[in-house]
Design goal:
With 224 residues, the protein is an alpha+beta fold. 43% of the residues lie in helices and 20% in strands. The longest helix is centred in the middle third of the chain and has 25 residues.
Amino acid sequence: MPAPLSQAVEDYLKAIYALAQREQPVTTTRLAQEMHVAPASATNMIKRLARLRLVRHTPYRGVELTDAGQKIALEVIRHHRLLELYLSRHLGVSLDRVHGEADRLEHVISEDLEERIAVALGEPSLDPHGDPIPTREGAVAATPARPLSATAPGQRGVIARVSDRDAKVVRELAAAGLLPGAFVEVVSTRARSLDVRVEGQRRRIDAALARAIYVNLEEETPVA
C-alpha cells in the first residue's frame, strides 16, 4: 500500500488543477503565486511531483497533471466542497468562513466520512458557492456561466456561482445579496463599476466584485 501523500503535495495538485481551469499553460511562476511561495520552492515541488508521476513538466511550456495526479486533485476537491456544504448547511458556518475551514479539514477526513457526508447531504452536485462537486468517479460538471463583469446592459439571469478565493469578497457578496440563486439584471456599466438590480433592488458594485460573480443569462434585452 503506498504511503499517504503529504498535505503540501495535495495542495499543489489541487492548485495546478484550479489554475489549469482558468489559464494555459500553468507556469512555475503562476503556481508559485497561487501557493504564496518563492519560484524556487514551486520548482522543487514540481520536480518531486514529477518523480511521483503526478505531473508532467516541460520547461518553458508549463506543468500539467497526469491521470494519477488529476484523480488525487479531484478527490481532495470533492472532500473540500462536500465539507463546505456540510459546514454551511448543518453547522451554520458563514459563507465567507467555510472555504478556510474546509481547507484545514479536507486532508484528514476518511473516505468513509466523505461517504457519510455525501449521503447526509443528499448526494449534492454543487457546493454553497455554486461550484460543482466532483463525483466519486472524478467527473466534474461543466460550468458555462459568464462573469458578470463581461455582461452588457439589459442582460439578466441567475447567479450560478461566486468565487470563494477571497473571504472579504464573499462577505461583500453576501451583504449585497449577490449569491447563487439570486436573480440579477445589469442596468449600466462603467469603467470601474456596474449598476445592477438584485431581486429588484438597484445596487452599484465595483468591477472587481463583478469579476467574482458568474451568471447563467436568461435573455438579452435593452434596458428601458
